[in-house]
What we know:
three-stranded antiparallel sheet, alpha+beta, elongated
Amino acid sequence: xxxxxEGVTVKIKGNNETVEISIHDDLLAKENKEELQDMLxxxxxxxxxxxxxxxxxxxGAITQGISIPGM
Length: 71
């Protein structure tokens, strides 16, 4: 699953393990530190949200709408 904002991309697995972070070269300048931190936060949250949605969709297909406690 991939989430990101302009210039920053984060890829995570369904178990929320981060597998890749991509940062555009223009964001690596010291004067962009605060902007980069904000973009990383947005990218991580977006990736986690997308992984959760993917997980729920896949589990829904497996359980066919049956509610399983703890899942």
